[in-house]
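Tokens for N-carbamoyl-L-amino-acid hydrolase. Go.
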Amino acid sequence: MDTKERYQILFNKINQYSSGDIGITRVAYTNEEQACTQAFMRMCKAEGLDIRMDECGNVIARREGRFNDLPPILMGSHLDTVYQAGKYDGVVGVTAALEVVKRLNEKGIVTDHPIEVISFACEESARFGVSTLGSKAMVGLFDKDKVRYLKDRNGVTLEEALSLYALEIDSVENASRKNEKIKAFFELHVEQGPVLENANKKIGIVTGIAAPVRYFIKIQGTPSHSGTTPMNMRSDALLGASEIALELEKIAKEEQVYGTVATVGVLTIQAGAMNVVPGEVEIKVDIRSTSIESRQRVVDHLHQVIEFVGETRQLKILSKELASEEPVLLSEDIINEAESICSNKDIPYNVMVSGAGHDAMNMVKLCPTGLIFVPSVKGLSHHPEEFTEIDDIMLGIDVLEELIIHYSKKESIIS
């Protein structure tokens, strides 16, 4: 059996675990996700790894090195999904890490540093509205008081969901490794966008991860009859929301040289009807960039537009910041080494930023971190038709293997 066939079998085994009939649904702290996690732990044990699950539900599978007092090198991603997801997001990174271990075992390579395969818990925000909980716990950023009572669509709190699998929210802080020395973390991930495919590149070497600022905006006008209210006497909340959305698009395009994007992803018309001029509309806005300055220019313009639209359309507009995170830059040394590996292997690559968040953005706070992308066909992600060619995944695993071998040498240094 060649490595591609072996990897495909591993990949397929993981994706057996799902609920529903459309795509893959394996949301965090559910029976399907926990069954998948237990299966993955058995696969790791079969490769001779020492396995433990921390207090947040992260799986840590360790391969001892020649010098076990040296700080470990970590690699991995996540197994949980959004609702009706595809097969690749997160899974590629976890299975790729195990495949690297299989290759090291097959070749009889003993690394100087210990190697750990990580499967992070609750990377997706689909169930509780917060993301990357497992990696936040690992780096000491888990705020139990903030997330304890978050509820899923069935009214189950995060605290209750954890307890169903013998995990206690008051103990999650013990998962922190912030006082432990770790040499590096590597994550292989599908791009979740169209850049690599459109550029005909096989590897994305990520330099930074954009961070979002998010707003909830309520636009209040006057509900009135659509047939009896003249156009010049209306206070239409939906048109006000539409103007805000279009202006947001305009300013984001002016900032796109910085990789800045802005999205109105939620629009709700309260008590909407075909024959009623909308009186109240709520929108949620996501603005993200790796440039704080560029992102702030878009935010400033948003506030100006809100004020202008409120005055000119006689609307009352309220805005509230929901979240604001800092973008992160990844290890320059790892970026350079990844470029060297791709060049030596004649793999076409792109140096790029990530617009999506990943566990890697938290791990930066713990150790030097590298993030490698493989192409997503048509840029689809969080969708049942999400797809990445197996040959592209294998190239990504080749690069990951070379990075692990290079940095697992005692004399290797990451600045």
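The first helix runs from residue 3 to 14.
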